[in-house]
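Q&A log
Question type: sequence-to-structure
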Amino acid sequence: MLKFDTAYYKRFYGDNGAHDAEKIAHLATAVHHLAAWWGINITSVLDVGAGMGMWRDWYRTTFPEVTVRSIDVSEHACQKYGHELRDIGVWSPSRKFDLVICQSVLQYLNDGAARSAIKNLAKATKHVLFFEVPTKSDLRHNVDRDVTDFEIYARSGLWYRNELKKYFRQAGAGLWIAKKSTI
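Response status: OK
Response body:
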């Protein structure tokens, strides 16, 4: 597994990183309000691969009543940004969350670990999963090569959809509804 150390964070989350707090705020606003439109009252969030903690920070500022649990496999990120050290490929929480966020995580796991992670994401998701990962097509056509890590397992979108549909219904825009959800 790659080391997600200080150099990694400087390279991919520095001044020219792919995501910043403003972009995540727009995304978080959209995800949160779509869930509300579906009648989901988000009171709990699990942020998997939380990195710099931008989702958690957005929730703390915008919806401070929402409980956010943030986890990451990086010791550096956990120490610097205050997450729990957890690997979603082998760990699953003992409770479910209204919203689970898994943004740019599973591309770092081999196929077996990615399948296990998806199963653990399903165990964690009460209602909605926000799932984003670069696919082979994204790597060829969409990503900014200067701010994207290419030392990953590149898979097709079909591979991810086939694995996710075992536990979720695709809603679009990276949103997946847990099959056991009441919505």
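Response note: The two ends are 37 Å apart (CA to CA).
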